[in-house]
Amino acid sequence: MEEVEKDPEEASEPSVFSENQESKSGVSTQEAEEDPTVEVKEESQENWPEEEEVEGSEKLITSQRIIGLQRDLSALVTNIQTAADAKESMRRTELEEARRLRLERLENDAKSSQERFEEITRGWSVAKQKLIPQELQEALSNQQQLWAVLLEDKKKLINDLQQELKAGDDRYVKDLRKQAEELDLMMERMEEQIKTLTKAYREELAQMERVYQQETDVLLTKYKSEWEQYMKELLDKEGERLMQRKEKVEEYETIIHHLMLEISDKDSIISIEQNEKFQVQERELQQIKGNSMVAKLKEIKHEDDLSRNKFNLAHMKSRIISLRTDMKNLVEKCKSQEQQFTKRNQYLSDDYKRNIQQYECIQKKIKHFAAADVKKFEEMWLMIEAEVKQLVERVLVIESLIYKQHLGLAWERPPLPFMERSGPIQPQKHSRRPDRQAESQSFETGSQRMMDASVGPQLEADTESMDMETYREGREALSESGTEVDEGKLTTEMVKKVMELLCDEAGFLVEDKLLSLLAPLEKEEQTVVKLASLLTSFGIEEEDLPKLAHFLIKSKHQQRQPTEDVFVEFGEEAETNLTSELTDPKHVVPALKHFLEQLTRSRRSSAHQKSFQHVEARDASADEAYWESMGNVISEDELKLWDAAESTLTQYHAVLTEISELVPETEDLEQQNKELRLMLQQLLTSDL
Amino acid sequence: MPRSAYSPGSKLNPADDYSKMRRIIAEDPNWSLAIVASLSNLCLQSIVKNFEKKPTFEDLTAIQKDFVQERLSTSLPLRVTANLISDGVYWKRCCEQRWDLCDVSHYGHSWKRQFFERHLENIIELFIPDVTETKTVLAMVPLCRNYVKRLDISQLLPPVKEPQEEEVEYGSELTIDNEYDGPSMDHFDFNILLNKLTNLEELHLVYRVKQCGMNFEWKMFEMTNRDCESLARALKSCKTLKLLRLHQSHIEDQQCRVLVKHLLDHPSLRELNFSHNLIGDKGARAIGKLLNRSKLEILNISDNNITGLGAKAIANALSKNSTLLSLNLRLNRLRDEGGEAIGKALLSNNVLRHLHLGANDVTTPTAIALSKVLFQNITLRSINLSCNNLGADGGKALEEAMSHNSSITECDIHLTEVDEKHVAFINQVVWNNQKAKEQKRPAQESKTKTCSTLQ
Questions:
Q1: What is the mean pLDDT of residues A485-490?
Q2: How many CB atoms are located within 10 Å of the residue A410 CB?
Q3: CB atoms within 10 A of CB A560
Q4: pLDDT by residue (tens digit) across B95-119?
Q5: Where residue A318 falls among pLDDT bands split at 50, 70, 90?
Q6: Which of A122, A645, B80, B250 has its CA 20 to 30 A from that of B7?
Q7: How many CB atoms lie within 10 A of CB B279?
Q8: A interface mutation test: which of B208, B384, B386 has the most A CBs within 10 A?
Q9: Using a CB-CB distance cutoff of 8 angstroms, which residues of chain A are in contact with residue B453?
C-alpha cells in the first residue's frame, strides 16, 4: 500500500510549479532530526526487552517485545510516509503562500502600472496642451521614460517569475530525487524490518525451543530419576522376594526329596508284595483256566460228537427212507417192465411168424423173378448180338469196298469166331450151371445170417444146417470151430474160468487208471470190466468169446498133445482136466496171440469171400471182351486207312461238286458261243 | 517434450522403431524397460493430440483429466479450452508460460481466473482506439465472462493522431472543426464490455500511458469528458461491481459529478477510490450525496483539492450515514472548518471505524472537536491526524480524551507539534487498548498456552 501510495505522490508532483527551498531544507532537517531519535528509540526498545529477557521473565515479555518490534518497525516505515505527507502539505501551504504572494505582487504591480498608466495618460493630456516643441519634446521624453520604467517593471516581474519557474523546475527535480531516495530508504527500512523481524522471530523460536527443551530436559531428568528410583526399589523388592523364594524352594526341595525317598521305598515294598500276590493269583488263575479249558474241550467234543451222530442218524434215516421209496419205485418199474417185455415178446414172436411168412413169399417171388430176368437177359443178348453182327457185316462190306474199289487191293475177310456164336457168353457153363441154384441160396443164407446176428444166438440153431454148408465151402478151419461152438455153449462155466484166466494173464494190457478205479470192486465185477476192456482193445466181439475160449483150451490141448482131433471127441470128458490145466497161465498169452492172428485172417478171408460172391453172380468180364472183339473188327491201322480214304473221298467229292457247278456255266458259255456264232453269221450274211 | 516421443512421425521412423525393439539401451541412462505404454495412456495421448479437432474432457475421470491437463498444448485456441477445461494444471502452465510472476493467491487461488483476467487486461491495455477492432475484445467476452472477477487496468492508450498535429500547426480553426471528426473515442470504451462481464466485481482504472518516454504529453494522463460519460454509463450497466478504483486520472469536479450521478443507487458498490485526482468542493458535494444513496462502506478521496466546503458536505452526509466504515481524506485542504464539521458529524455517527485526516492543515480546534468524539464514541478504531499542526493544546485535549477511550487501537499523531509526553501517553493508551483487544479475542487460547508452558 505504501508503495502504491507513494507513486501517486510522485505523479502528482509535476502539477506543482512553485517551490520553496527553505521549507524543504526545514523538512529535511526535521526528518534528519527525527530519524536518529527513532533509531535511538528502536535501539533502546530492542535493548529493553533483551534485558528483561536476561532477567529471566518469560514468554509474555518476549511476545510484548515482538509486538513492540512490529509496532516500532512499521512506525519506522510509516514515518517516512507521514513525513512525505507533511512535506507535501507543507509544500502545498508554501505553494499557496507563494501563489498569494505572487498574486499580491501581481496586484501591486497592476496597481502601480495602472497608476503609471494613468500618469502617462495624464501626461498625454499635458502633452497635448503643450504647444512648444521643446516642451512637447520634454513631455514626450518624460512619457518615454515613464513607459520605460513601466516596461522595466514588467520585465523585472517577468524575469522574477521566470526565475521562480526555473527554481520550481529545479526543485521538482530535486524533489523527485529526494523522493527516490526516500523510497530507497523506505525499501531499505522495510527490508531491515523484515530482517529484524525474522531475526526476532527466529530468536523467539529458538528461545521457545530452548525453553521447551529445558522444560522437557528437566521433566525428563525428573522422570528419569523417579523412574530409576522406582526401578531401584522394585529391583530391591524383587531381589528380596527372589532370595526368599530361593530359600523356600531349597527347603521345599529337601523336604520333597525326603518325601520322595520315603515314598519310593514304601512304594517299592508294596509293589513287591503286590507283585508276589499277583503272581500267585495269576498262577491260580492259569490253573483254573486250564481246568476250565479241559472241561470245556470235553464238553465241546461231546456235544460235537452228539450233534454229528444225530446228524448222521437223521441223514441215514432220510437216506433209508429215500432208498425204500426208490426200491418201491424200482420194483414197480420192474414189474411194469416185465409186463412190457412179455407183451413185447408176444408181439415180437407174432411179428417173427409174420416175417417168416413174408420171407417165404418173397423167396418164391425171387425165384420167379430170377427166372424171368434170365430169360429176358438172353433175349436181349440175342437181339443186340444180331444187331451188332449186322453192323459188323456192314463195316466189313464197307472195308471190302474201300479195299477193292478205293485202294484196288484184294480184301480178305478177317476171321470172326464170334460171328458163329449166339446167345450170352457162358464160359464156365459146365462147372457153374448146376451150382447156380446153390449160389443163389448161399446168397440168401448170407443175408439171412445178417438178420440172425441181430436176433440173437438163440435163432442160430434154425439156420445151423445152412451155415454148415456155406462155411464148409469157404473155410475149412472155421467149420470146425463152428461145430465146436456148439460144444462151447454147453460149458459156460469153463468159458467163465477161461475168461478169468485171460483176465489175470493179460491184466498187463489193461490201463492202470481202470485198475485203480476197479480196485474197490469185487473180483467178479473186476473181471467183467477187465474182460470188456480187453476185448475191445483186441477187437474181439462178444460172439467170438466162446470161440476164443475154445481156442484157448484147444491150444493147450495141442501143446499137450499134438493130435487135436482125438481130444475133440473127448471134449466133454476132458472138461474137468481142462479146468485144472487152464490154471497153467504160461500158455495163455501165446495162445491168445495165435487166436488173434487166426481171427484177423479169418475175417479178412470172409470179407474176400463175400466180394467174390457178388462178382460171381454174373461174369461180365468175358462179356466185355466179347463186345470189345466185336467193336474191334476194324483195326487201328485200318481206321487210319479209313480216315485217309475219307479225306481223299471228300476232296474228290469237292472236285466233283465244283465240276457240277461249272457244268451249267459251260453250258451258258456254249449257248452264248452259239448265239455269237449266229450273230456273226448273221452279220456276215448281212454284210454280204 | 515427452509428447514428441509419442508423435506419429517418430513412430514411422525406422531408427526409432529399431531402438524400441532393443531390450537394453546401455547408452541411455534414463531408459527403463517399460517400453509400451498402457492402452489407456495411448488413448489419452491421442486425445491430447487431437484435442483441437475433437475435444474430450468432461467424460474423463479425475486422474485422466490430470494427465490430459499436464500434456495439453498451451497454444491451443482459447475458444476450445476456455469453457471446457476446468481450473487446474493446464491454466497454471498457461500462466507460467506467459508471465514470469504468477501470484495465484492474488487471484483467489484460481489459475484460470488469473489467466483470463490478465489476458483481458492485456487486451484492453493494448487497445488502441480506431486501430484495434472491438471484435478482438468482444470475442473474448463469452470465453472469459465466467471467470473474470477483477480488472486491474494500468494503462489506456490514446488514439493515434498524426494528421491532427500537422493541422494544429497550420491552423487552429481547422483543428476545432476536426475535433468532432477525430477518433470515435479518446480511450477504450468500457460500454461494450462491462455489461457483459457478469461476474465482474472489481475495476481498477488508470488513465495513463506507461513507458511513454520522451513522447510525454499531459493529455496522456487525463480522462476526457467523453471517456467520463462512456465510463459512467458502463459503470451503471455493470450491476455486479463492488469496487471501483479510478485514481491518478485527472478527475475534476465536472467529471466526478458525472460519474457520481451514474453511480447513484448502484446495487452492489461497496468501495470507491478516487485518490490522487483533482476533485474539488463540487465533486465532494456530489460524493456526499452519493454516500447516502448507496451502500458504500469504504471511501477514499485522498490527495484531492477538497476544502472546508466540500468537507462540510461530506460531514453532513456522514452524520446521517449508517454504512460507511472507512473514510480517507488524506492530503486535502479541509482546514479547521472541515475538520470541525467532521468532528461534529461523528458525534452522531456510530458506524465509522477508520478516519484519516492526515495532512489536511487542521489545527487545535479540530483536535478539540475530535477529542469530544473520542470521549463518547466506541466504534472508532483508528484515527490518523498526522502532519497537522495540532499544537500543544490539541495534544492535551486528545490525551485527555484518550484516557477515557478504550476502543481506539490506532492513533497516528506524527508531526503534529504535540508534546512528547502527550504522544507517549496516547501511544501507551493505544497499546493498552490493542493489548486488551488481543487478549479479549484469544484470551482462552493464550491462557491455555500459558498454562501448558508453566506446567
A1: 47
A2: 8
A3: 13
A4: 999 999 888 898 989 999 999 999 9
A5: very high
A6: B80
A7: 26
A8: B386
A9: 58-59, 211, 215
